[in-house]
From TrEMBL:
Source organism of the structure: Caenorhabditis nigoni
GO CC terms, sorted: cytoplasm
Domain Arrestin C-terminal-like: 28-175
Protein name: Arrestin C-terminal-like domain-containing protein
Pfam families attached to this UniProt entry: Arrestin_C (PF02752)
Lineage summary: Eukaryota, Metazoa, Ecdysozoa, Nematoda, Chromadorea
């Protein structure tokens, strides 16, 4: 069991940027910048991973497509004892074998056109299927880790994309003390939350106080 409430990193939002110069050698096309925003890094199966992107196209080619994936990478380690001998003694030596696998557990591809000199904001949502929770400690035999991978493609041929990857946690107990989805930034970069407790939103009426006998 992996309780995300016991891991402070699970509640930390991710904000990062990736920039790539497009083209090669004498055929430089400018650069493409992608800002990525994920409101937290800890999730449970069935939960949606919201990915907010801000694409700034400072190149001379069009952005054509955005792909987002959740990747599962597992490492399996096995050990066994094997006898070895020389002319004087026989001894056992512990040997090991490591096997690694990589699988895409969720993927979303969306066609997109961002012309040169323009920028675009968008939101992608990847719903987590039923998978093994993150295993990155306490087990000497198996590790299971998860990553969010984003690729923004352009119409050029060489060095034509911006690629970004970051790790996330998948647990079994969801985060309790976490703002509802209305706190998240939407595709247009604004917040949906309405602060109903803001005093400036209310009008206070004053009534005159009457004095004297009733």
């Amino acid at each position: 069991m992996l309780d995300l409430n016991l891991n402070p990193n699970a509640m930390v939002p991710l904000q990062d940027r990736a920039t790539e110069n497009l083209g090669c050698c004498c055929f430089k096309k400018g650069y493409l910048s992608v800002k990525l925003d994920i409101p937290k890094t800890g999730f449970v199966c069935g939960e949606t991973v919201p990915i907010n992107l801000h694409i700034v196209n400072k190149s001379s080619v069009n952005v054509t497509q955005v792909t987002a994936k959740i990747i599962q990478r597992c490492t399996f380690i096995s050990y066994w004892n094997e006898p070895t001998f020389n002319f004087t003694e026989i001894r056992e030596v512990t040997r090991g074998e490591i096997r690694r696998t990589s699988n895409t557990v969720r993927k979303q591809t969306r066609p997109l056109t961002v012309k040169p000199g323009k920028e675009h904001k968008m939101a992608l949502e990847l719903r987590l299927p039923s998978v093994t929770p993150t295993i990155n400690q306490f087990s000497p035999f198996i590790k299971a880790q998860y990553y969010v991978y984003v690729r923004v493609n352009t119409s050029t041929t060489f060095d034509s994309s911006v690629d970004y990857e970051t790790s996330i946690l998948i647990g079994t107990v969801p985060i309790h003390q976490y703002p509802p989805p209305s706190y998240y930034h939407t595709y247009n970069g604004t917040s949906r939350m309405m602060n109903f407790l803001d005093p400036s939103r209310f009008t206070v009426k004053k009534f005159p106080i009457k004095t004297g006998r009733i």
